[in-house]
């Protein structure tokens, strides 16, 4: 493992968080386009690159609401409303700003930003240290000895750093086992059900005890009657939820690592902000 360090940015998480952290009506450019979220994205990237000192940076994006997950389960994320109208023109503007910083924008139709991040992690985790900046705890399943997740906290440049060691200590499971926990408990934010009647606490306990969905099924007789009934009645939803919870790490991406090389020029941030504001 060399000194190279790849920072993977969850662009959608950064953009939405930045939008809701400030008032769009007070930040408009000369064309009348709101810029509050884009400003926040640029400032967050400036802070992250300063704190984490990466040698390479990539920003990943969702590419629309239709993905392979909505093909499997049409109600996936169907509970989410349309983005605020002040945010809509900032999607493209944010990507422009990121590109102006010299950072590649990565997104694949039919996949989510998480899948792009996961695919880059799989491709480069044995070659370099990787940091993931996100607001999404689902990305904990990508943690490893050389992969750290930085959860966005309140304010610019503030994070909760999750290493493999911290995750195991706090959760009592391995990162990949998080998929089976989510399969059991479901995800209200992403709108998939899991096993109805099994919540987070019970899901963690079952995976801690039996290791996996397969381990639970092999020991079904050892569960309470209520647990047995819930799982057997919702077996199809359990396996579907497991598919939906899994970050897919085999998305074909067209990126040369040298395109993501980060030179760390501070002046560039000022230039980009002047251009978009």
TrEMBL record:
Q: Name one GO biological process term.
A: DNA replication, Okazaki fragment processing
Keywords from the UniProt entry: DNA-binding, Exonuclease, Hydrolase, Nuclease
The record places domain 5'-3' exonuclease at: 2-263
Question: Does this UniProt record's set of keywords contain Nuclease?
Answer: yes
Question: Annotated Gene Ontology MF terms?
Answer: 5'-3' exonuclease activity; 5'-flap endonuclease activity; DNA binding
Which protein are we looking at? 5'-3' exonuclease
Q: Which domain of life is it from?
A: Bacteria
Instruction: Spell out the Gene3D superfamilies in the cross-references.
Output: 5' to 3' exonuclease, C-terminal subdomain, 5'-nuclease
Q: Which Pfam families match?
A: 5_3_exonuc (PF01367), 5_3_exonuc_N (PF02739)
* InterPro entries linked: 5-3_exonucl_a-hlix_arch_N, 5-3_exonuclease, 5-3_exonuclease_C_sf, DNA_polI_H3TH, FEN, HhH2, PIN-like_dom_sf
Q: What role does this protein play? A: 5'-3' exonuclease acting preferentially on double-stranded DNA.
Q: Which organism is it from?
A: Anoxybacteroides tepidamans
Q: Has keyword Hydrolase?
A: yes
